[in-house]
Amino acid sequence: MTTLSPYDAMSPVIRVAYRAKAAAADLAPLPRAEKDDALLAIADALEVRTSEIVAANAQDIERAREAGTSEAIIDRLTLTPERVRAIASDVRDVVSLPDPVGEVVRGSTLPNGIDLRQVRVPLGVVGIIYEARPNVTVDAAALCLKSGNAVLLRGSSSAYESNTALVRVLRDAVGGAGLPADAVQLVPGESRESVRELMRARGLVDVLIPRGGASLIRTVVEESTVPVIETGTGNCHVYVDEHADLDMAIEILINSKAQRVSVCNAAETLLVHQDIAPRFLPRALDALADARVTVHGDERVLAYAKDTRATVVEATTDDWETEYLSYDIAAAVVDSLDRAVEHIRLWTSGHTEAIVTTSQQAARRFTQLVDSTTVAVNASTRFTDGGQFGFGAEIGISTQKLHARGPMGLPELTSTKYIVTGDGHVRR
Amino acid sequence: MTTLSPYDAMSPVIRVAYRAKAAAADLAPLPRAEKDDALLAIADALEVRTSEIVAANAQDIERAREAGTSEAIIDRLTLTPERVRAIASDVRDVVSLPDPVGEVVRGSTLPNGIDLRQVRVPLGVVGIIYEARPNVTVDAAALCLKSGNAVLLRGSSSAYESNTALVRVLRDAVGGAGLPADAVQLVPGESRESVRELMRARGLVDVLIPRGGASLIRTVVEESTVPVIETGTGNCHVYVDEHADLDMAIEILINSKAQRVSVCNAAETLLVHQDIAPRFLPRALDALADARVTVHGDERVLAYAKDTRATVVEATTDDWETEYLSYDIAAAVVDSLDRAVEHIRLWTSGHTEAIVTTSQQAARRFTQLVDSTTVAVNASTRFTDGGQFGFGAEIGISTQKLHARGPMGLPELTSTKYIVTGDGHVRR
Q1: Could you give the ipTM of this predicted complex?
Q2: Which residue range is the domain that position A167 belongs to?
């Protein structure tokens, strides 16, 4: 007969969290070279063991097809040898990024002679809750490892076989490189209960990052006692000012809305200054029609639709707050820039808002008054992205104000600590 | 008969939160000079209206005495003309601090020619829940105003009259200076329910900062859906390494423990390397006795107590996690620096830990392995303080890893936003 230790009596979720915490303590002081070696080992292992990964993925795809899953979701779920190679290549890109850990953020010698340094340190244990995109499994693990964090991965149950195979490969590579394999772990259990346990593991998990639909994010924000970084909901606006280059305005509008509709930085609402509406809207409505976009317009927009090719339906209040993620856009005519700002303040999710204007004064006022992660002047909303911003990688786009706001790169996966160095200094 | 608007139907707490949100929108774009003028108006008004404030405070003190409140708490509650002048002087100090808003944190021109700027912006609405210290009312309001935030103040009901008088003076001064008076508001209601409403006002309140006892902080952390910054619990450690200057070690120990016992950066546990214990502990125990400190020692500490003047009791497990805030200290002998680190990792609240050592290697290992807001080398734990760190002011000491860690000054009361400026840039 064996006796159970308290450790054995823990739930499987809490047990992996304890192991992650221990691994995080080992990772924290590691120099960059050791972490980069582990990342290179991961990239190599992904390529060497591609067939094992693709075979596991095939099981998920078969299950998804049997369940009648849409082709769009199956496409996101699918791993081909080519896609695995791309994922491995992304890991090598992370190797080339600077290590944020150890960076001196602030430093001075105090009047009493004490040396004060604020240095970046890993957060510790990062939990990621995400949808059926197996590439996130590797991306998140690579970014966490590079920044000295242990990661707990809670992917969608529809990607269970893929994630299990990927994490096996990741752990083998990490362990083989001499780092703790528990730096990368899958959260066991496919039930909601395992997510709930993760959300209550305060003291073990340092931050939870939910990536996925609005309802998942809301649940995590409301039920978690672990600190959360809210990501991703994007009800983005394009405001066309009274002073705007019409060609530029149409190009930015169509790019923001239709270059890729399923992403959080796609535009969902068009606001047009009343003085430019007669010249802009007829052309814009035709351009939207050509891009297969349905317009949900207010009364004043509807009035401009008559002689256009546009598909226009009357907007309801719901349209102002909807993140369509489809070939739809809400549209309204506003009396002034300040009315546009008011509309945005009232309805935005705070992701990205763009102004198209030739007026320096208007650009300045819009950027001052609009409080979102990103304010774009004469540029598409689609630029709000870690890769586009030159961060080299992105763990998500934070739409909250605390800790990180906007695209999150490696520095956003760190905290800081102060080092106080004296010669026997005491306080008088 | 009057009809109620939806605004009238709101609870009083939600109503002040809406007004704070509107005020925050007005404050955000204000230049430094306007905010500084309001702060100077506050300092002047506090001095001019001292008698009104002291009279209100006298009512709180009378109530507290009738309720049999301890003299220590009554002392913290008491406002004298001299103390009001000191508070006004603190406000003038805030005027001299740089404005964090508008600071460009990061900036570059992207390869495609887009200019990217990350700039500091106010958080928006900051809620402070605090104990019976009326000076916090003014300090918090001044720091929030300087950083462009509206503040919701929820002080202790035992300071109700004082806080009401102070907020009246603050609002008159802010309004008189042409800024929205609703930038400073007291949360109405003295019940727990009003705190609960504040904690659920997600979307209206941007961050809650609880300042007070451990149970208040735990409640806010667990029940709030608004983001929280956890502050203040300090189970701080002093570790005396095998290589340590004995005189320095004793001076740092006594200063850390006894210079002021009721504060979060006071030491609560002493750890001593076994090889220095025979030389250090007898002297240290006498020094602690002279400082009127009771020692809660493990077996090995007790063995050294025989021929000393020390009051020593046997430590229980509880002692390792207790924040005494009194003339008590837990003490243990450890086999090595790594055992000291393990002890700290297991029991610390993550505030401040100090090492006393002459060994560069030991100092380096300790600062690498200990993960607390502040790690002190040959310096007292008492230096972890915004004033000591040269921040000029402090809204609290964050013991969490997200957003801010350690003493929080003005920059910690801000978020950032990205400004993307192009010439019609679209994404390909």
Answers
A1: 0.94
A2: 10-230+406-420
